């Protein structure tokens, strides 16, 4: 931690700063420059994150030297983590291909979609049973019945399933029926929820909030990891920006940036990032080329009757086409699309 | 609802669109322009918010004519709502002056701060007992003991109290000890929490999320209203932007914009909006001048030892100064700072 | 300047850093922390702004201690500057009230608008003769004839005039006919233009770019100041953001922030900041309450036939109303709306 | 054009709207809905872009049906344009590989860099002689001597050259010495400059402004095209956002979005988009995978002494590595890196 003092900081203020550092059991290193005095603090920076150092009179700026997350950092685990989702591996060269409808819908439709995406190479099946909708009047999901249907259909086609959990009271229920828990973008900083999924034994797909920096995202992963659940996969799904031509702004640089900072895998979700079927294939390819550990795409066989997010769904044949391109790109990059497990535990 | 069709939309596609509208029990009005065909839909737009009209083949754009919220709109309630918080009125010319520390802390400190802010004219006392912290290693609040202390101190000084609730499982507990429930910015779209506070009898202070449009904010208010709790006060507390000189970007235009769209009161929180004590007084005045129904400011008597957000706290004497200016401005604007209730129910 | 070295920086890299600092004639101060080594550089930081210190192997981060602007900073001029525009003072408690149509239009209309705004208390008349339009097919302004008309009309009503210059080749011409040169938001970083207006003897109204930080804005002012023209007034006119309900986002905190960093006056332009007549009065009041040194508002007597920006113009009677409110607020704040000059030099 | 009227629009207001449309020689089509009246305008929308329709009393919203640009649109030219830069083709499957230092520097260094990047497969050489610097005290470029050196070195190694022009007065000079003119991000809406380069015979590389939507970018291209210069290549180089971990935010979805709207080629510049050498290769690959018509990367053989932007330069060997990967990806995508011309005209 480095403290830059104000240009007019008095000797008394400087002494007070040194006393405060001393009282915290750390060592201060004073450096008087031409314009400013600087105090370097030597010792465990973690002790200081709690301290309102910037509120000490005479302090102008506080600069952290270490990242605020520990378990999520490369220092804690220098090799890429490989997360196992009921037999499907994500990270370290293994790619997740997550596909399925936005919401769980009719049973025969679910089977049709599952069959199509698994034939195209998807290895994880998705669908929402508890939907976080911006309108209280919109379809809120099928609930427990939907969870059961998602699992039954996914497993029938050999794919583990991932579904969103939106409420700490539902973590046990959703864990029972799914292979991976999704925490959505709007709940990224729902710390009560993060704490509960951190206690679950299911791997977690943590989506980046629409105004979250990568550091914010990794701090939320840290919440989960600090509860003992080390199986976290991050997901870039678009952030807020000023151009309304797309639903969100796809931040593809988040992929190599996470890989510079953390051992956790990161996948991309071009469906939510763009909200436009005509842009999804190009962005899926861009994500993979940037090093993503997987791609999440929403697929529906009749978008105009979908119960949610129809306008951004790919048709099964469109998914098959981009999946085929992604397979070739994966090969060029020396990566493997994880095969389906022989059985799902 | 207006549908703008793609330039090459075929007659078959147009007929299919008309059939879909008809099937929904609504009337379509076709208009063929020089370049594009347009379909106006006549009838209850609410029926359509659920329908993925944009996914119908041939449809290029869907334009809503009505806002997506009903109960929060001026149509539902053309006069400004006046919310009563245990005797303190907010809205319709009545101003809330919310002040207090970020977190509930030691008892004597709480009394000192309460005494100072109430002497300066504050009419609601605040403090967090359950803190949504970005780091899992940071102080998470005193919990139930903190709730009790906040209430006892606030009421001892004649002020109703407001405190944050972060978890749907805690709504009953927090309602028991507080006069107003705060939903924080990071939980603005935590729909499970919104639903629970919507069932509570306590008024709700709903803070705008950091990447929420005003329409998003009003939709979240709608969640609470639609559960039967009509006592919602909105709060502008800064949104994400690119200039790192301030913690967030204070969107003062949100105040008159909300007043153009909704009957709900809106207050401003320059503490979180700027994160800088040197900018808080100017922004507090700006908020009032823009028509805000109140101002929320964090105050601490020794910021350098505060358990959270110390660097953005005003000292009691700084608060007294800006409160005095705000009183004069309120008078100029013909508004009233709500007096303290005779007794707190 | 502070250099934070990478965690694995070798002794050789550290020595190389020290040698580089030494070669620049500055003194280095080494501090080895628990996790990182830090190099404080003592001496004239300005010498270093040119140097790509971050590209030195082993350097992780470079932190500037001083702001990158000098002449614009409070250190250079600790008192607020008062700018004189042909007799109208701006800054240090003197308020500019700039009003007029977006573009210079028909002569009788110009007289009608000038009469109305001057009766309402405006002290500077505005109008564009060279318009930076987003479409090449849109009205580009009346050119020199417009300049002449603006000056003649403004001066006839006792008001100095301000108008935009968009091209370095036009600075002399525009200077001849106007009392103050405006550099628009889209040209804020047009350094060729800044250099030319820096050589002019006319005061300059420098509008903030839509994606400029306050530091960026002050650097652009520095371009003008460094050419010898010390008469620069800044203008907050809205920045880009994600909510499309307003044209731009009005950053009212920019006003006190500039006053913390610079001696230059700053005014606000709620017309461009919001693009909505129904929000302009509230935002004008907010700007003044935040300490702005003036307010810029576009006024047109028949917006539906205006040659540009009609939809955001106030009617003369609307302007008169907000001007009357602003006068009362100015009095409360102890500020003076600059009176019209006896004669315009 | 569609006009949505206010909910309380009177019959007189509606009639006035119809009269105004009629007076413009266009046909109105009235549609009274349950809540709102809508007026569709049939005829040449271009006639209306100038008209402040939104300022007509009773009008709530104006919705354009056609894009505001014509020459840049796919309607004007349904096939991808192929731009020829002194023999190097860009667009329609032909890729530009632009590389070189940020600024033109010493002659031997220029030769070393040119040799390295041309060996790695670059087909256009870049370097700035007139630099738009955020600080007036920073190196402003070598001027005409730099132009001459850039051309001589580039051509000696068989590569046409591209360099920035920042001032309308310099367009002729820069055109004389270069094969392609660059308009930088800060000058994207410098309409005087756009008009001048529109009169030049040199192809133009138009960089996207940091707060420009894709529609804004295409409107600026339209300025150039409307002057008769049809050889415009667009460039995505990052936009402003809230995460400070990267210099800008790389908007890779801009690539397929431009291809949906326009025939103009678009390349990507991961150097400015990220500002971080450790992220540039991944983002270069992402850009190509998304369909970009080329990649622009800054290369320097000793970044720590570079005259500008050293910290974001790739070393020649790093460039060679990513260029080799890009070649393989181009092959997979069925695209061709344009070969060097036999002679440069």
From TrEMBL, chains A, B, C, D:
Pfam families: DAHP_snth_FXD, DAHP_synth_1. Residues 87-332 form the DAHP synthetase I/KDSA domain. The keyword Lipid metabolism does not apply. One of its GO terms (molecular function) is 3-deoxy-7-phosphoheptulonate synthase activity. Its EC number is 2.5.1.54. Residues 1-66 form the DAHP synthase ferredoxin-like domain. InterPro entries: Aldolase_TIM, Class-I_DAHP_synthase, DAHP1/KDSA, DAHP_snth_FXD, DAHP_syn_2. Gene3D superfamilies: Aldolase class I (3.20.20.70), Phospho-2-dehydro-3-deoxyheptonate aldolase, domain 1 (3.30.70.1140). One of its GO terms (biological process) is aromatic amino acid family biosynthetic process. Keywords: Transferase. It comes from the Bacteria. This is Phospho-2-dehydro-3-deoxyheptonate aldolase. It comes from Stieleria varia.
């Amino acid at each position: 931690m480095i403290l830059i003092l104000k240009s007019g900081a008095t000797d008394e203020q400087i002494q007070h700063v040194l006393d405060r550092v001393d009282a915290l059991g750390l060592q201060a290193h004073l450096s008087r420059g031409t314009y400013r005095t600087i105090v370097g603090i030597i010792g465990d920076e973690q002790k200081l994150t709690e301290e309102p150092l910037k509120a000490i009179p005479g302090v102008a700026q506080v600069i952290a030297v270490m990242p605020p997350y520990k378990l999520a950092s490369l220092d804690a685990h220098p090799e890429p983590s490989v997360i196992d989702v009921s037999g499907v591996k994500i990270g370290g060269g293994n790619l997740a291909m997550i596909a399925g409808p936005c919401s769980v819908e009719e049973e025969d439709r679910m089977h049709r979609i599952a069959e199509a995406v698994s034939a195209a190479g998807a290895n994880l099946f998705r669908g929402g049973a508890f939907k976080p909708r911006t309108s209280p009047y919109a379809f809120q999901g099928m609930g427990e019945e939907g969870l059961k249907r998602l699992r039954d259909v996914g497993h029938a086609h050999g794919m583990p399933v991932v579904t969103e959990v939106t409420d700490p009271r539902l973590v046990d229920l959703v864990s029972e029926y799914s292979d991976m828990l999704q925490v959505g973008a709007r709940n990224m900083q729902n710390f009560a929820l993060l704490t509960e999924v951190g206690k679950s034994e299911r791997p977690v797909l943590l989506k980046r909030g629409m105004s979250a920096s990568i550091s914010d995202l990794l701090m939320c992963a840290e919440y989960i990891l600090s509860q003992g659940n080390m199986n976290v996969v991050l997901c870039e799904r678009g952030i807020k920006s000023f151009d309304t031509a797309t639903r969100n702004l796809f931040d593809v640089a988040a992929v190599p940036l996470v890989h510079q900072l953390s051992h956790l895998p990161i996948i991309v979700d071009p469906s939510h990032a763009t909200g436009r079927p005509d842009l999804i294939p190009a962005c899926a390819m861009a994500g993979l080329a940037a090093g993503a550990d997987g791609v999440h795409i929403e697929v529906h066989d009749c978008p105009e009757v979908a119960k949610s997010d129809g306008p951004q769904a790919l048709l099964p044949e469109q998914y098959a086409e981009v999946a085929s391109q992604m397979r070739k790109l994966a090969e060029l990059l020396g990566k493997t699309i994880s095969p389906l497990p022989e059985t799902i535990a």
